[in-house]
Amino acid sequence: MTIIPFLILFPFIVAVLMYCIRVNKVRNAIAYISAVIVMCGTFWLVAQWLLGGAKPVTISYSTALADHAIFAAEIALMCVVTILSFKYKKYWISALCIFRTLMIMYVELYAPVKEDIAKIYVDHLSILLCLIAGIIGALIVIYAVGYMHGYHHHHTGIEDRRYYFFMLLFLFLGAMFGFVLSESLLWIDFFWELTSVCSFLLIGYTRETAAINNSFRALWMNLLGGTALAIGIFYYAYKDGDLALHHLVAQGVLHDKYAIIPVALIAFAALTKAAQLPFSTWLIGAMVAPTPSSALLHSATMVKAGIYVLFRLAPAMMGTTTGTMIAFVGGFTFFVTSVMAIAQSDGKKVLAFSTISNLGLMVACAGMGRPETIWAGVFLMIFHAISKSLLFQDVGATENCLHSRDIEDMHGLLYILPRLAMFMFIGIAGMFLAPFGMLIAKWSAFRASVDSGNIIMVFFIAFGSATTSFYWTKWMGKLVSHTHLTEQKIKDITKKNEVISLSIHAVLMVALCALFPLLSRIYVDPLLDEMYGTAGTVLPQSILYLLVVIILFIFIVPFLAYRYSRKQHYNRKLSYMNGVNVGDNKNFVDSFGEEKNLWLSNYYFYKFIGQRKLMVPAQMFTLAVLIIMMIMVIGGAVA
Amino acid sequence: MNMIVRIILYIVLAPIVGGLLEGIDRKISARMQRRVGPPILQPFYDVKKLFKKQVIIVSRSQTFALIPYLFLMILTGSMFFAGMDILMCFFVMSTAATALYFAAMVTSSPYATIGANRELIQMMSYEPAVLLTCVGFYLAEGTFNVSEIAASGRTDLLFMPGFFVAFVFILTIKMRKSPFDTSTSHHAHQELVKGLTTEMGARNLAIFQVTEWYETVFLMGVVGLYLINSNPMSIIGAIICILVVYFLEILIDNSSARMKWEDMLRITWIFTLFTAGVNLLVLMLIRL
To answer: Is there a domain that residue A587 lies in?
Structure first.
């Protein structure tokens, strides 16, 4: 499978090209073509792998050259971080980076490690992640070309460094492919580090004070996770001598005492990557970056990488203290961040909080580690990736037209920017309404947590889904309300390539909703089979039939309703305002007898449940839980 | 076959039963207030008249949102009486409730919008109790399947009294009874006018009304599920239980004043946590 090195290396080569070419038109063209090539490459990989029987494939190339290259790149990454840390006077962050890089280098040079470790591993899970990164990542690149054009058109104060931006996007894609396809822990560590640094640079793209501060916050949190990962690898290299991820998981399943600590440390690292409490603030801070990078960071790659690692480790975590810790932190994050999302009116912030919240649910699924929960988690991941990517791009496009991404300003968006509002509607519906897959996944997670006797998870999900529905529904309500905004013509200036990307996402969303049972049978069940060695369907047949009925309903009823409301003869009147209307639905006469504009607003409760109020206590609490549980795990393993 | 018959029976009978229940409700409420009250068939007369009236609307899209509300609610009830997954029933019900919310929001009328926002808060208040009720059935019977729950030898009420109390508590919200009638009430002379339904008239209001009947019958079906077991005689017990619960709701409605939504949310969540939560713990322990 020569396509694998190609998939990993090609984006890196494109990244160099992006940096070198300073003519916008040429660069854009290359970006388009490369995005399509990446997408085709992904399909090619999938096709090859399917033709090979869709079995797990381990590949070890003669990798001396690759190992040297990675070694050099690791030093380069360390230098970049160190130089930037010194430049912005965040010295201690560089210490963190140097420490972990030295440790990894020491392992590479001196640790008693077996030579013939497999380097690449392809199975259902890594193919899934490749598809997410390949398709959604490439779509985001296509979208970004148009978006960044508009972005620099409006933000004239920001230096146009698009060559740098696209370089980072492609680096990111390459790192992501490398990450999910690697089997060697050393390689995983390198690509992990690369995604951290890329996200750090992307967040700081605008070089504004807030951007720089947030980027360093993202950096140190991810480096902390990276350090935990490095310690885990170091420990495992010395105790076991094998550095293959699957070997570690297999040892973990057998409760080998040398595997307990690495599993716990790597799981901890994944928590930071997946922006779980107490490390959630970096993801919220990342919202200052231009939209494509937040979409890429959120939906396609970065955060899913954390989830990917946890899914890999899930069999080893089932029923262990580490698993309990991960499940608890995930469940708690799911609930608390969904509460905090209610208090946000900035569209992108809501998306950020809901991302953290949904990731929390996936993390909890991984922590429980049962086949049913992984089933639910995989579906959460698929649907979340698509609908979040759709929503991020859509909010970005809306912001370019509306010059605001505040949900309150989206009142009546359906009548102002109908196309973008429809996309937004589909994206939000996909996040929580029947019959979209998120809901089924939630159903399954719910049942599995009852089955595993995890009472706390049951509560988290019961209360968390109530709050989740609340913030989504009120956003949708804003979109459909008849506008009360003063008449101002707003033009839809969304570029064609943005619309292409959005449409593909929306079609994927609806198609997946219909193909959901099929996907479960032909893809996710074999995935579980690989992980747990037990075949068996999670989804009962009766539920499948039900789904078909509900899907039919959802598509037929609005059609009927449309026909019906078309035919209706009606008499249109003003809305009821106690008789103080002034001729339209947008104004009324106030108590001074003057005309006043009507302004309708949603509930936000920010005084009670705002980020300021809840974030620090929640962080403290989870930090305490993490510290105590980590001590228990490590102490238990050492003793 | 049996399943289809039950679905048809639900679709045909639910509006009749629901309307009758409302008629009785009005009559009893009137007697509690020392009034004579309307005839028991009054709700049907009302709906009939609403269908005949001229359609006056603020926004055309309202009908477009209300019809899914009706159909999704029928689907919910049909799924329940056909004996399918109870958790799915409630998921579809919450989608139906979302459609109602849209029907109120599209108008951009101030009173309807306030009502709609409060309806959302109500949904947030009752959803945990609803989900936990499903978990309760699952723990007591080992299945979410309604027909299997109904056909088992156990009387679930004995195993899940806490869940039952929590469910009856949120029924007050769901049936728009005082003290939790914050989104719309049966009386139009109050601070939020008619809230959610302020801008619904004629046929639209009739659709809303009929949907509420379907909903009531579905919810009462869930109450009955607590008592039904493999013994056919248990149906009588279930009906008595439903009537008692319904009377209790009327009594609460007539003896309490409307609460602020903040208090509603807080009290409902705490109450759910204590009744359903404790019951859940006990059931889990028995099961382990």
So the answer is: no
